[in-house]
Design goal:
Strand content: 35-45%
Radius of gyration: 22 Å
Order of helices and strands: HEEEEEEEEEE
Low-confidence stretches: 1-21
Helix content: under 10%
Number of helices: 1
Strand order of the largest sheet: 2-10-9-4-7
Number of strands: 10
């Protein structure tokens, strides 16, 4: 009896001191995601770079959001399961292989297993990253929604991929996504001819200037 009580107390103490085994989840509300998302959690979303899992790659929605180059695009997400961390938004123009690797992480040991401690944030993001370290939060708010506008580069792209990821701190390793969850949306971007093309993005060339009229011979 004493042994059973001692074991129960030890188990209770472990439960109180060990970090909660909770996986963060989020829904990409705007723009419309490229695969169907479970309305309760937003799954499947573990596999990079654009969601799905090894067992379930996801069902395409065939949704394409049309955007004007140089304009602001609304990005809205809902965190369905809380976890501390931050978000990042990136854009692939020609192929999803252009999307950056998930944030570099540092880990800590929790009961002999690696857990995330921090994720690396670039304070001066450059293509293909649009915004980094976004919505950094460490307070539980059930059903919290995050909302922002990102400036779309002035480019031409028939099938771009806007990637929205969440890096989770204090989290065990996920087989598919390590410490990051992923969603993407397909965009069609049409450049504004009145402003310069953003040539820092793949496949974009500056518009040719008009030739000056030839001088008349006297």
């Amino acid at each position: 009896m004493k042994l059973r009580i001692a074991l129960a107390c030890a188990a209770g103490l472990f439960a109180l001191t060990a970090p909660a085994m909770v996986s963060a989840h989020f829904i990409l509300e705007t723009p419309k995601g490229w695969i169907q998302e479970d309305p309760r959690l937003g799954d499947p979303q573990k596999l990079g770079p654009c969601g799905g899992t090894s067992a379930n790659p996801g069902t395409p929605t065939n949704a394409v959001t049309e955007v004007a180059g140089g304009e602001l695009l609304r990005v809205k997400v809902k965190e369905t399961v809380y976890h501390p961390g931050f978000f990042r938004i990136a854009l692939a123009v020609k192929d999803r292989s252009e999307l950056p690797a998930d944030p570099e992480d540092t880990t800590k040991d929790v009961n002999g297993k690696p857990w995330s401690d921090k994720g690396k944030v670039d304070p001066n993001p450059k293509p293909p990253v649009l915004v980094d370290g976004l919505w950094d939060h460490h307070t539980r708010v059930p059903g919290q929604e995050f909302d922002t506008y990102v400036k779309i580069p002035n480019i031409n792209c028939d099938h771009c991929s806007l990637q929205v990821i969440q890096f989770m701190e204090n989290h065990p390793v996920n087989p598919d996504g390590r410490f990051t969850y992923h969603h993407c949306a397909d965009l069609k971007i049409t450049a504004n001819p009145r402003i310069p093309i953003d040539t820092a993005w793949p496949g974009q060339k500056a518009a040719k200037g008009k030739k000056a009229p030839a001088k008349k011979k006297s």
